[in-house]
Hints:
mainly alpha
Amino acid sequence: MMKKKSMTEKQKKRTLAIILFLLPGMLIYSLLVLYPLTDGFILSTFKWTTLTKKVFVGLENYKNVLSSRYFIKSLKVSLIFMAGTTILQIGLGFTFGYMLYLQLRGYKVFKSIFFTPVVLMTVAVGFIFNYIFSPAVGLLEPIMNALGLGEHYFPPLADSTWALVIVIITHSWQFMGIQIMMFNTGFMNLPQEVIEMATIDGASGFKMIRHMIIPLTREITKTIIILQMIGALRAFDVVFVMTAGGPNHATEVLPMHMFVQAFENFNIGNGSVVAVVIFVVCLGLTIISRKVMGQEDLQY
């Protein structure tokens, strides 16, 4: 009986110790994550009449925002932006990451080259690409003139279709280094004995990639895709610097639309609605991606 009582007291002390260790982390998480989420949802149910007065309107802001054609367009632009940057960064990240894994000649130099854009400020990257495509001082027009293609030149950032393409390329160029390093790290952690056995059995080139590399790196690939999609949906600074959402809302992604509503139109309620939508979309995509890519019976 005494022994049982002693075990119960030890379990209670152990549970208390676990709670005490978890408490600081939970407090920080609540302060930095749960509180802003809750406050954002609360703000989305109010409408500001002046700088200091606000009126509770319930779900009226949601009705106004979700039925707005500008919101629907920004949602489509965000999804296109997410798809474009994800395809580029995952495809090129996997390719260059695998090339670094093979440790070809000069691979250490290329590691630095690939990662250099990541450490640049996004604002600076936006200005650099703005100058490249500028019709006044940019490099694109002189290059096309030198190649005899000057008559086909047009300012791409002023074109509704090409502006989004340029922004996608700019964002992918800057952050592709992260995907390359993450893929390279995943490849470096592959079980070498399995790779060696596959090589002995005659696997090489695309057969090695298809039947060995891709299945063995499925978990890291899943993580990279989810992080990339969430990062793309939160992209704001490069769009703000390069196009400010133009021309004609062609590059107005959801964070840009949120900024316009909250700080240019001073409609904080509508801006908060857009923020809630971004959170819901990110959460939904994460759950769907984990379910789709988490299947154990995927065929390669």
